[in-house]
Amino acid sequence: MTTMPPPPAMSAPSAPPSPGPVLDVSGTRPIPFWRLVLVELRKSYDTRAGFWLLATIAILVSLVEAVIMISTLVNDSYVYFEDFAGTAGGIASILLPVLGIILVTSEWGQRTAMVTFAIEPRRSRVVLAKLVVGAVASVVTVAVMLLVGLVCTLVCEALQPDLTYWEMEWWLPLAFIITMTLTMTVGFSMASLLLNTPAAIVVFFLYWYALAIVLFVIADLISGFEEIAPWINFQAALDPVWSWSLETAEEWGQLIVSAGLWIALPLGLGLWRIVHAEVK
Amino acid sequence: MFDVAGSGRLVPMITVDHLTKTYGQFRAVDDVSFVCQQGRVTGFLGPNGAGKTTTMRVMVGLTPPTSGRVTIGGLDYGSIPNAGRHVGVLLDASAQHGGRTGREILSLGALSMGLPSSRVDEMLALVGLTDDEAKRRLRNYSLGMKQRLGIAHALLGDPEVLILDEPANGLDPAGIRWMRGLLKGYADRGGTVLLSSHLLNEVELIADEMILIGNGRIVAQGDKRSLLARAQGSATALVMSLDNAALQAELARRGHLVEAMGDGLKVNVAPEEVGRAALAAEIVLTDLRAGGAGLEDLFLELTSASAREGTGAVPPPPPPPPHAPSPVPTPGGHA
Questions:
Q1: Chain A residue closest in CA terms to B80
Q2: ipTM higher than threshold 0.95
Q3: pLDDT of residue A109
């Protein structure tokens, strides 16, 4: 049952021989974007690297939550749903950017880019699909974080109902989704710029944490700099998101400008590099 | 079935037009032009580093050309919608994630191209990978298994064009024969095949047309017959007779280059000429055969001569006799 390709739809033999050898692509639709997203999503967990990264996050979260729960129960202290959910989200948001990095760099480390870009030569669509996967991963993580919070709070509720509270700011999950997606995008842009897993991970953590600290310190030391700092320090600009107080036009402006510097610039350069690189 | 080759009507499917790719001073591909006809297998031959892979990478948009262009069925590769459904590509069988299983790799391809998962099973069966092997991770595959998987991946989308870089590399003799049958059948059904190799004998038996490339330039192209005709020009004969000395004198008198070799003589002329000389001089021959002038020699001669110009590492080819048919255009002289 060899399934050999049929000849191209060259119509009847009576067709005039001269008009050329055109590949008949009229019946073929381009690969829809959602299918590219589906493929990239599957690629994010079908390898050991992806799987173990997700597993590591899950294990870390469970460990920390267990510690919090046990100490709460032993000490008979108050506990809020928000504590559990927030802790889970905080831990996940540290490691999640690594997923964003691996999404990009594994194509180069494992040289699968050759296959990926032969199947979809419009490379920017593939990169965009990967970004969407990153955003989806953030949403899923927040959903899991709420679930973990729910389970932990339920246990506490059963054991010490008087000390357990279900309060959580309604916007907290949203703030997590926004910041996680943005952090992931920072990792993503580092990855597309460097196209190398270890380098991208190291540079990301330096960039994301060390640079922000340096900027905070400079703002403290040099008078006048604190005026500029929020415009160029993305971490500082994210503060209003965390307290859900992003109200003034200035705060929005700072968020957009610093995001432009921290994300759009490296991402743009990285995208340009990926689209124009020779894939070997 | 649709018979293109048999009808004598050649339909160009892949057109490489004055393609050049330079890396700094190095010209990896130097003004290369050729055409792959529909329904035919085109062999792309040349030593390692001759520019075959670069040419094929430009074909599928992975390498931007410095100048010139390649079209497939009249289109740029990048403008073919769902390219995998029209053009099957295998450039490097190892360029897959080592941690994925063979089945997973094909499944991802099928998902991208919008094919049912049954297609994956069909392709696995076609290339002879068992269920067990399909469940193994790629890093545990032998090179031959990777090649089979790569061919399966190229055929997934049921394409009209196949572009395969060194597909026989790592296949055992039975595997090479299998692939030969597969590609021959594919071309007979109207498909277009371009496959590269640095080994002539892998390609000689299936290629209807051959492109010889050396040092980034096309050194010869044509069907086997015209290339062989060219090779005959530098033919040699090995001969033994009851009186070698007399035969040598007769051959030399006729203007042929003769040298002693083992118990016999080596003559720079076709065996037929040696037979005539022996007949005229009434010398009894005990052995007469062609001295291995074939495509192999032509291939080596053309490609190494172009690769090592002037170093004298390779003896210069004997001048072709005047009656030798002129070969198909050399360096990129294709219109």
A1: A25
A2: no
A3: 86
